[in-house]
Predict the structure.
Amino acid sequence: MTIQQAFKVLLFSVFLFISQHGLANDTYKLEEFRQYYKKNWKPASKEQQKDADNSSKNPFENIRIGFFRLNLTTDDVYGDDRLETLNDFLFDEQDLRYMSNFFSNYVNIGNPHYRHVRIQRMLRLMFRIFTVNVATKTREIDRIRMNAMARRLFKQLFESPTIDGRANPLYNYFTITTAAIRPDYDNANDLFALIFLAFLSPHALSMERFELYFAQVHQHFTRNSYHQAVSNSLMSGNISEYHSPQGFANQLNAANLDSKTALLIALWAMGRASHFYIEVGRAWPKSLEELLQRYLQSGFLGMSYLFMAINDVSKILSMPAALESLESTEEFMLLILGIDVASLPVLVEDDRPDSHGAVVPDDNSGVSEGAVGGATEETRKCLSCTGPLNDKTQSENGTRSVVCSVCIESVKSLRVESARIVNQRPKAHKCKYKGCNYSADRADHLKKHKKTHLPAERRPNKRPKRKSCDQPPSNKNRKMIDKASPASQSSKE
């Protein structure tokens, strides 16, 4: 073969490769992601790997969740060919961590102005994973085995004190009470817990327990991420800045918490859709927009506000009633995610999950009427303890409160008890004079007090302070006054 023929063969191969890649679809811009990190990503050092967050770990890992596999390592496939549907299923902790890592890396690449577009692509990819694992028809025996595998992994992740000999940071994650969730509680990764719960719950939990656990994740996420952003001055500490969907969204966008918040809302909706499909037989949504329109958690914005102000009763009572509405949450979604759910065609009433309150699923699901979304006036729940809110507690501004009177009184008593404990703390400095019980927490206060025990002749004589309006005149003014006085003139005569 001559050099000219070899060059023609090489040129034809390059042309064929380019044409194949040009015809292939890349719905989620996976090749753009791979090219970006091939140029910019560098492996972390051993010291950095110990305390590394998601964004510093290797972004090129294959992800296997259930029947779905995302191939990010192979170079001879392109675009949507990296999305594979397999015949067997698998749930593994490491793959779910890879999914969390992939999300964090993907949304932070490229131009920040297109951040909403990247978040939408990731959520559409996750919606596709849910569609494959939940809505794909499988044999009953495979479904039973799949659920058993998910239950074992869920128990290992959230109910085992150790994993492979190491302390499990997610142990008892869902059993921590509201009062125990502190702003500095960072022993568990809330993003990991969110991913684990969302993808495992359709196969491991009932609908009622799923809603309860997701509300707990919402609490952790708000108390950790939002409060940490406030303490770092990334978000405003003025609660009035969060009285509107636009103000709330602006604060999250400024702190780069829009991606995690959008993920929390979308995975909550995907989980709800999965449970309605499995336990009630509801039709599976055809798109991400339809999913959000059907299963968006209408009280998400109000719950976020409540969890931010959970330690201050006055802030809780000042919560605007508009934050509880579905319209406010839809406006919030438009600002956070860029999807205008309100502009979509109105669904038929029977297609909404809230309109099926009378449908009672299997007894094993543990779901009663009005348990999931769309609660009626009689079934409204307290956003703190999830108990019934039938007492119609009124807030100070005349609007109906979102927490029951029991929770309000418990918070008040907690604040009173905290103040009592602070006032009873032992004083560091005590007076040693016989018969004196004085004590102070500052040394200068004690030093000033000890002077009261000195004899009268040894006590420092304090000259009374002269008022600003009673200051002595200057020498120049005094001489002029002396010259003008009648006494001085008579003495001269």
Q: What stands out?
A: The mean pLDDT is 75. The beta strands are 63-70, 83-90, 162-163, 166-167, 429-430, 439-440. The first strand starts at residue 63 and ends at 70.
